[in-house]
Amino acid sequence: MPASRPGSTRGLTRRQVLEKWWTLPVGATIVAFGWMGLYASRVTFGKRAPGRPNFVPGTPLRVAAFSALTQDWAQQAFTYDGRPCLALRLPRPVPGGLTVAGAHYAAYSRVCTHLGCAVNLIRDPEVLAFSFNYRPPDSSPQLGCPCHYSVFSPLGSGEAVFGKARAPLPRVRLSRRGAELWATGIEAAPELGRGGAWAGNMSWTTRLALPSELPEVAAVLQAAALALEKRGQTLWPQEALSAAALTAQYLDRQYPDGQRWLGELETRPVATMTLLVSDPHFWPDAQGEALYLHKLAVHPEFQGLGLSTRMLEAAVQEARRRGCGFLRLDTVQDRPRLRAVYEGFGFGNCGAKHVQGYEVALYELRV
After folding, report:
1. What is the CATH number of the domain that holds 362?
2. Any alpha helices (H) in 210-348, and if so which ranges?
3. Structure-model confidence comparison of residues 344 and 202, the more confident one
4. Alpha carbon distance 91, 220 (integer Å)
5. Which of 101-110, 234-243, 296-305, 342-351 bottoms out in mean pLDDT, i.e. has the lowest?
6. Averaged over 101-105, what is the pLDDT?
7. Total number of domains constituting the chain
8. Would you give the DSSP letter of residue 130?
9. I want to staple 119 with a disulfide (CB 3.0 to 4.6 A). Which of 55, 143, 265, 354 is the partner?
10. 116 is a domain residue
């Protein structure tokens, strides 16, 4: 057997390792860019067309009177088959929609097909261009997801036209019953990622909070306020409504006559709101019977899942039950994403007001 040469070793030498080390970062870079290219091609070219409607029959539900949808792009939020939905009057007919006396209607699930957040109607093309990096070719309103910025076309039968979502929004079957618009079925929901799995697997309840549950109400508000403070934002006046100040005692003192509500996922309180029968500070000259909404908040762990929409729907139902004509609220002027949530739900801007050192926007919804 020949003798080994002095200094030789089995395997790679240190010099050989040093000569080849560059292949590791180069290889990792190639893999990373290859994966990003594959993902980009999937979300850009892998979007599914809506196709022919495939409705699953369901329990008939009144959506709105036709008289409440008198103009193109008028909207009505509702819940069908446990999913938040939106009915729209459109300027032209679309597959899966309904035409009555020359007016065109369509309705879609508001659950984004990417990860299950709630989409809103974005009317301003400049807001779409700035916030979503998408400008519709015809400048028409679009349904936009505020979580990951997917965009869906109402005039394209809910097709995903931009962003990470690939599947279209499920359509709701509409029918005419006299002077009213009714929902009678809905397309099956596509399989979502982990972020949207709660919608079909967890029960949701909205109810009045008991007097003994004020600490639970305060806990949700405190968590929401603390999350805002960490981002350098304040939804309510800092001196009165910081995370430290939001206590059960404060709420009982500030809103002695208010109805405090809780939203629960699987019996866990994750959202809250307060409803008042009058609001002289923000609406001193308001006309007509109304409910006034304050302190709407969702626990940070459950934000982006459409729970604020479900709370708003509960507020609308309560206003109707009481025979009120309006649901009213206020919010600070410099929160465009929050204002988009309200506007996407159907609230109309009633102007601005300077209250306690804050510029607030006033919103009203005819119920």
Report:
1. 3.40.630.30
2. 214-230, 238-241, 248-254, 307-321, 336-345
3. 344
4. 41
5. 234-243
6. 96
7. 2
8. I
9. 143
10. yes
